[in-house]
């Protein structure tokens, strides 16, 4: 067989598909696109950026961090957890396969595609981009970063972590779960939904909105 690696022979790059796969690491990296894609796992991982991006799914997933990040959308989505956190280039619909601890590197506008149970790993300052119906999966201590108009989707038992100045956006029927010392920030027209035993914390100038039968708790 022709010795494709002999220094005296110019190989036809299209012949790379016939190479001994264990020698692919010696190829001209700019010709890797001609390899047999099922053998890409033998490449020098630092040269994977030269591969035919549509064949990246055949790579050794633990080497995906060497890929050209702009081609990550071609990866086998189940292997995205091995990527170098350049997730902003991923196909957003595949973000659910990422290593959740790297979600902070995602393009925040694509967070709506994440596996909602992994939202606790997001960069909290980007939570405003989440799918609001999934906010219940967030790390409750980061709810202060949410879009206040989406607080109605939160887990009511976690409302105590909200930015108190945004409580007016909560689902009023869940105000009983708030930190009572923050009730002064509520929308006064919703005070009727509060836990009456906590009315002592309200802004007294707003008590006119309470249910009169609850004033006995003051």
Distance between the termini: 94 Å
Q: Which spans of ≥5 residues are poorly predicted at pLDDT below 50? A: 1-10, 211-218
Largest sheet data: none
Rg, Cα atoms, Å? 28 Å
What is the helix fraction of residues, given as a range? under 10%
Helix and strand content put the structural class at little secondary structure
How many separate helices?
0
Q: What integer is the average pLDDT?
A: 55
Instruction: Give a count of the beta strands, DSSP E runs of length 2 or more.
Output: 0
Please indicate the percent range of residues in DSSP E strands (runs of 2 or more): under 5%
Q: Give the overall shape, derived from the CA principal axes.
A: rod-shaped
Give a quick rundown of the structure.
This protein is largely without helices or strands and 218 residues long. 0% of the residues lie in helices and 0% in strands.
What does this structure look like?
Helices cover 0% and strands 0% of the residues. By secondary structure, the chain is largely without helices or strands. The N and C termini lie far apart (94 Å). It contains no helices and no strands.
């Amino acid at each position: 067989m022709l010795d494709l690696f002999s220094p005296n022979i110019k190989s036809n790059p299209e012949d790379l598909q016939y190479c001994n796969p264990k020698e692919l690491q010696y190829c001209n990296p700019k010709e890797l696109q001609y390899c047999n894609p099922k053998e890409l796992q033998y490449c020098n991982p630092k040269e994977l950026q030269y591969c035919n991006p549509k064949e990246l799914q055949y790579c050794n997933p633990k080497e995906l961090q060497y890929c050209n990040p702009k081609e990550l959308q071609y990866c086998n989505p189940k292997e995205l957890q091995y990527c170098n956190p350049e997730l902003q280039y991923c196909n957003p619909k595949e973000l659910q396969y990422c290593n959740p601890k790297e979600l902070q590197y995602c393009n925040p506008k694509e967070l709506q595609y994440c596996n909602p149970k992994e939202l606790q790993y997001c960069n909290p300052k980007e939570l405003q981009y989440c799918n609001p119906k999934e906010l219940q999966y967030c790390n409750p201590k980061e709810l202060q970063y949410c879009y206040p108009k989406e607080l109605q989707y939160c887990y009511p038992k976690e409302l105590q972590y909200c930015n108190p100045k945004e409580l007016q956006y909560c689902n009023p029927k869940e105000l009983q779960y708030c930190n009572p010392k923050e009730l002064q920030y509520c929308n006064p027209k919703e005070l009727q939904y509060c836990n009456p035993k906590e009315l002592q914390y309200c802004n007294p100038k707003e008590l006119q909105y309470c249910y009169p039968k609850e004033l006995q708790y003051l």
